Amino acid sequence: MCFSNRKITPNAIVFGVNHHNTLGILRSLGEAGIRSDLILIVTDDSDPYVARCRYIDNWVCVSDEQEGMGVLRKWALTAGSGGYRRVVFPTYDSVCEILDRYYDELVRYLHLPSCQRKGGMLSLYLDKEIMRKTAEDVGFKTPRTYQLDSSGGIDLPEDLEFPCMIKNMKSVIGGKDLTIYQDRETLLNGIMEMSKCSAQIQIQRFVEKDKEIQLLGASFGKGHNLIACVLDKIRQYPLNTGNTCYAYLTPRIEEYIDVDKVNEFLDVLDYRGLFSIEFIIKDNECYFLEINLRNDGNGYAPMTGGVNVPYLYYKAMSDQLPFKSRRIRGEYHLYVEGNDWANIKDGAVSFIQAIQEYLGSKSKLYWNITDMKPFVAYWLYMIKRKVTKFFKKV
C-alpha cells in the first residue's frame, strides 16, 4: 500500500463585496496557483462580476455579512474535518469586524486576521480615535482632531478649526462623507446627516496636503512586517479626498516616511493580515490618517512590481514558513479604471489625458489579459446602468 506525502494546498476563502478589492485578492492568489472559494456580498441588482474570475472553485452570493458567516462556518467545519486550516481574506471593514467577533470560535479551523491573536482586538483598532492615538504614541503626527457624541445634541467645540472633515468613529459603519467643510452651518448639516448612521463622530482638520500616500503590505505578528511599496496618489475622485484614480508606485519608502515608526506601530497592534496605511505629507511632515486592517482596494498593484503580498501572507500562515520582506522592482503607474470618469465629466482631467495615462500605466485593477470575464462583465453592467439612467430621464 502506498501513501502520498504530497501536502494538501487548501483553497483560500475570500469574503467580501463586489469590488475590485475582492477581485485583486482572487487574482493575486490564482496567479500563484492558489484557488479560492468566494463568499460575495451583493446588496443591490448589480452584476456579480467578481464571481466571474477564473481562479474561483466555489462561490456563494449572500445579502449581508451575517448570512456570509453561516456559509463560512460550514466551510470551516469541512476544513477542520480534513485536518487543515484555511486562510481567510476579508475585503471589507464590516467583514473584518464580524470575523473578529467570532474569532475565538473559528480560529481552530481557520487562519483569520487578528490583533494580538485575541478576538475583539482587531475591532478595537478599527476605532478611528484609538488608531489615531496609537499612531501618536509611536511618534506620528495627526491632524487636529475632535470627538463628538451627537446622541444628546450637537455641541461643536469652540476652538474648532476650518476647513475640516467628518468620519464615523467606527470604520464598519457606513455613511462615508468626503465633503470638506468650511463653516459651522454646513458642518452641522453634515453631522446631522451622518448621525443617522452613528452618533460617534470624528471631526478632523483638513490639511492642504502636498501629497497623499499609502503603504501596502502584510504583517505576520511582531517583528515580521512586509511593506511592499509606497503608492503616491496623483489624482483622486473626489479630488483631494476620494478614491485613487491615478498613482505612482515606488520601492523608495524611506524617501517618504520613517519606516522604523511604521514597524513600531504595526508591532504595537501585533497584527496578522494584509494592510494599507494612509498618510498625508505637508511641508515634508507626515500626518497619519488611518490603517485599513484588510486588503486595500489598490492591493493588487504591487503584483506588477513582482511582490504578491496575498500569496506571501497565505504561505506564511498556512505553512508557517519564515518570510523575507520584499519590495517592488522598479517604479510604475497605476490607473484605476472607472474611478476617473467623474473627473473627466467635471473637467478636472481631459479625456485625452486620461487615455494617455491609462495606456501608459503598467498596473490596472480591472483589465487583465489572462482573466477578462470580470472586466467585460463590469463594463457591460456600467454601460447598461448608464443607458437605463439616461432613458429614465427622457
Describe this structure in words.
- By secondary structure, this protein is of the alpha/beta class.
- It folds into three domains: 12-125, Rossmann fold (3-Layer(aba) Sandwich); 144-205; 211-378, D-amino Acid Aminotransferase, Chain A, domain 1 (2-Layer Sandwich), CATH 3.30.470.
- It contains twelve helices and 16 strands.
- Strands 6, 10, 11, 12, 13, 14, 15 and 16 form an eight-stranded mixed beta sheet that branches.
- A hairpin with a 2-residue loop joins strand 13 (271-282) and strand 14.
- The longest helix is centred in the last third of the chain and has 21 residues, at 373-393.
- The chain is globular, with a radius of gyration of 21 Å.
- Mean pLDDT is 91; it is low at 1-7.
What is the number of independent domains?
Answer: 3
Strand portion: 25-35%
Looking at the structure, what is the overall shape?
globular
Give the termini separation. Answer: 74 Å
Provide the helix percentage: 25-40%
With helices defined by DSSP (H or I, 4 residues minimum), what is the helix count?
12
Largest sheet: 8 strands, mixed
Task: Classify the fold: give the CATH topology of the largest domain.
Answer: D-amino Acid Aminotransferase, Chain A, domain 1
> Can you give the mean pLDDT?
91
Structural class of the helix and strand makeup? alpha/beta
Note the run of SSEs as H and E.
EHEEHEHHEEHHEEHEEEEHEEHEHHEH
CATH superfamily of the largest domain: ATP-grasp fold, B domain
Low-confidence stretches at least 5 residues in length (pLDDT < 50)?
1-7
CA radius of gyration is 21 Å
**CATH class (first level) name of the largest domain:** Alpha Beta
Number of strands: 16
